[in-house]
Amino acid sequence: MKKIILSVALLISGLTHAQDSIFNNKSIDFGVGVANVLSPGSGVGYDGKYLDPLSLNLGYRVMLNRDFGISANLAYNNFSGKSKTNEVNTNFYAFSLNGFLNLRSFLNFGEFSNKFGLLGHFGAGASGNTIAKEDAFKSYTRDLAIFVNAGLMPQYKLNDKLAINLDFVLNLQKMQGLTLDMQSAKSDVGLGKYFGTATIGVNYYCFGSKKDKVHADWAPKFDKTASELEALKNRVKQVENKLADTDKDGVADYLDLEPNTPEGSIVNTHGQKVTDTDGDGIEDSQDFCPTVKGYLEFKGCPSAFVASAESLEKEVEGQLKYDIEKFTTDINFQTKSSSIKLASKKQLDGLAKILISNTNLVINLHGHCDNIGEDILNNKLSLDRANSVKDYLVGKGVPASSITTKGHGTLKPKQSNETEKGREANRRVEFEVKTK
Question: Range of 38's domain?
């Protein structure tokens, strides 16, 4: 009794676990076909042609996981045979519990085809026979037995709800009182009396709470996917760690040469704190008036320079002017970024060639921002954008001495900042090329 209770508890536990599966785990398995007695009768003169013209099998199956399942089955077979004097007609009824093994999944051949499947099953049950013997006495009797069976079920998938199958089963009788031709049998007759069935049928998957999901018979292997997902999670975690910004200065730790600058510090693109004595957002090395708060427009001073080398510069004329204009349209930037877009680099490459070939040319780069964010940050960002273009041109061979940069913050919008299109146009660097 304890074994029975334990078995039932394990079965209930398995069914409960199956409900948590991510695939459909229930099916109705039906088959119709023929059966043949492979160890016929008692050997007392019957011709041995025990053929079942209508073998039926109906099962309710639950897959506990992708590989293993259980089912409850009902079966019916009709055996008939005759000798010169007698004719026997036997009805065979059976109930069995079976374990199923999804060989498609277990052996991994599902990777080669998504249409063909193979189930193996084995089980035990009880059977009842009603045997009629047509002779001078017209005898009729009943007999009970237990049996074990094993079988293979090839499958072909029609769609997510239906598959056709062939089921080949071998049944071994045990503890039956009579043979199928109504002869007395010894207690061990089950070891020698067996029959086989072959049916064609369907596996029907369209019911249950997960009927819209693929059935376990056809569910793909998840082990590889799970490992790939775990690897992806680890890579994402590594990226997140790299993007961490401990001091919240806008520079990720892996690029930050000073990852512990005080909050609110003005830093360069390497995360290094810059000195800004007058607090106007312009680094002292770029500030022409480092002790007086000023504007980027005036290079850190409160008003414009009057005496400047720029007053000696002249406009470019002729064909050279035309050639330069091809490469001096505004280049635009992503929000809060001073990185040059790949599409803009071809334009800068063309401009660099002209500047290198004409050493009398000087270029002024004017950086601008949209109105998103604080002024102090936008002032710095606009200058960073101009310097980013300068660094690129210098990297292509243009003398640094021929390039000056200015950051105008949000002071000179090209279009309205009320629309995204306008803000995109305002995130720019403008070019001003002159000759000495």
Answer: 2-221
Counting the structural domains of the chain, the total is 2
Positive or negative, the CA dihedral 244, 250, 255, 256 is: negative
Query: pLDDT, tens digit, for every residue of 273-319?
Result: 667 777 777 776 677 777 677 777 777 777 654 334 444 567 888 88
DSSP character for 356? Answer: H
Q: Nearest 5 degrees, angle CA 291-CA 296-CA 302?
A: 50
Torsion angle of the four alpha carbons 222, 168, 162, 25, in this order, in degrees rounded to the nearest 10: -40
Q: pTM for the full model?
A: 0.46
Q: What is the pLDDT of residues 154-179, one digit of tens each?
A: 999 999 899 999 999 998 877 777 76
Our measurement of the distance from residue 112's CA atom to the centroid of its chain's CA atoms, rounded to an integer in Å, reads 20
Whether 64 and 175 share a structural domain: yes
186: CB partners within 8 A, 6+ apart = none
Decide which of 221, 238, 268 is a domain's last residue: 221
CA pair distance 121, 102, nearest whole angstrom:
9
* Cα angle 133-36-76, degrees, rounded to a multiple of 5: 70
Q: DSSP string spanning 137-176? A: T-EEEEEEEEEEEEEEEEEEEEETTEEEEEEEEEEEEES-
Flag whether 206 is in a domain.
Answer: yes
